[in-house]
Amino acid sequence: MISAGEFTEALAHFATGVTVVTVADGRDDIGSTITAFASISVEPPLVMVSITSTSYLAEVIDRRGRFAVNVLSARQKALAGRFAAAGRPSARLLLAAEPHQRGEHTGALVLTTAVAALECEVSQRVVAGDHTIYLASVLALPPVTGGADGPLIRYTSRYRTLG
């Protein structure tokens, strides 16, 4: 179980960060860049992701119930763009040249050079307009090494860095 202190420390890294959400789906890995991600609770550790309801990613999350969140670093702007592109290949192919591992609790791809990574399990699903909001329990915080670069953020339709 994750302590409140560990979760609070991790929150500092991804409050406004661009994230890639990945899901293991048996024969393939699904992933997409999202910017609607927030911490909801420290005790218990809960986060929120908002995903277009008609997307394949939402369909797979609904079926699998677990996913990983990878908070991208300032150096990963190109990766964010690849995961945001229409018609993109599987997440496994997009991460082929990047250091990554499978999450122990979700089986989803975890980028080891991310600023922060979380393995999550859906605890509640809320449809809001054209998006589905997933409230998810944080199962684990896999070790990552990208914190020194700072987070990648999205502001005025562009990827930016802090500083």
TrEMBL record:
GO molecular function: FMN binding; riboflavin reductase (NADPH) activity
Example GO BP: pyrimidine nucleobase catabolic process
Keyword annotations from UniProtKB, A to Z: Oxidoreductase
Matching InterPro entries: Flavin_Rdtase-like_dom (IPR002563), NADH-dep_flavin_reductase (IPR050268), Split_barrel_FMN-bd (IPR012349)
Domain (Flavin reductase like): residue spans on this chain: 11-161
Domain of life of the organism encoding this protein: Bacteria
Pfam family, any one: Flavin_Reduct
PANTHER family, per the entry: FLAVIN REDUCTASE, FMN REDUCTASE (NADH) RUTF
Entry protein name: Reductase
Organism: Thermobifida fusca TM51
Classification of source organism: Bacteria, Bacillati, Actinomycetota, Actinomycetes, Streptosporangiales
